[in-house]
């Protein structure tokens, strides 16, 4: 890979499958209608500005209807200690509008646009760090996700985003065995660690960090040497693209400015900047959110012309990593984190900082 900066975009496409345990059966018809209407506009912007993106999609969403949903259900379902986390239990006890759960036609539209990768957000919006579920149940879920994507779209899913960013490091070998070569990991800041155990402080700091430089530097230089064949590449997220809210006044501008500045720094120093969000985040105030997205993409275009910054989806990284001539074991190094542009620092086993995910998840499953 050359020394140009990289702009990575990943979206968690889930509709209500990603919110069922938070808002249960509460209707939000216009919100989801807007979400579905917005996606072609997002795709249009991506095409106009040459953006390659990974759409980490819930497998259940790829089903046409309930009958097909049942067809692809895995034999082993996740047996969470708290059943509220089970998409199956929720679905069977709620009569939710099906058009906000199943959207294979939207997946067709996404994959028809050049540079768009269909990734996985598991089959059932699976919570990998919640107690009760096992590695075997996780594996069955991944297999179901891969099966429906292959049967319906002829695509092999290789990039994975863990729902609720619950990256369970004990499950990474399972991911690799099921053919996943890249996963999104979390920023290294403390308020992005152990996302299975949310606290008021973490949420507050995460929100504040979208406005002010509270966390550490979130762009990085991926070191592709450590492509250990037994584990997927972990590609850290840099920033969640928080949606516009009319009641927040100047804070909307600060939020956007922070992203612009971070992108600029990444482009200038040849680093990677990974922006992510959910399509449904544009469900409220869609016009303003699309305008904000276009402002970001226009800035990318400027950075592309000025610093040769490149757009990449998650799969692109793996493809380019495979072209790297030299490799060392992943356990030795993971990413080069630069505390200052002048002094790049390579992490070693001795001084390694978390690259995101759960260094010590509460639930290892039965591996
Ligand atoms: Zn999700």
Automatic annotation (TrEMBL):
<feature type="domain" description="NodB homology">
    <location>
        <begin position="37"/>
        <end position="182"/>
    </location>
</feature>
<feature type="region of interest" description="Disordered">
    <location>
        <begin position="324"/>
        <end position="367"/>
    </location>
</feature>
<dbReference type="Pfam" id="PF01522">
    <property type="entry name" value="Polysacc_deac_1"/>
</dbReference>
<dbReference type="InterPro" id="IPR011330">
    <property type="entry name" value="Glyco_hydro/deAcase_b/a-brl"/>
</dbReference>
<dbReference type="InterPro" id="IPR002509">
    <property type="entry name" value="NODB_dom"/>
</dbReference>
<dbReference type="GO" id="GO:0016810">
    <property type="term" value="F:hydrolase activity, acting on carbon-nitrogen (but not peptide) bonds"/>
</dbReference>
<protein>
    <submittedName>
        <fullName>Polysaccharide deacetylase family protein</fullName>
    </submittedName>
</protein>
<dbReference type="GO" id="GO:0005975">
    <property type="term" value="P:carbohydrate metabolic process"/>
</dbReference>
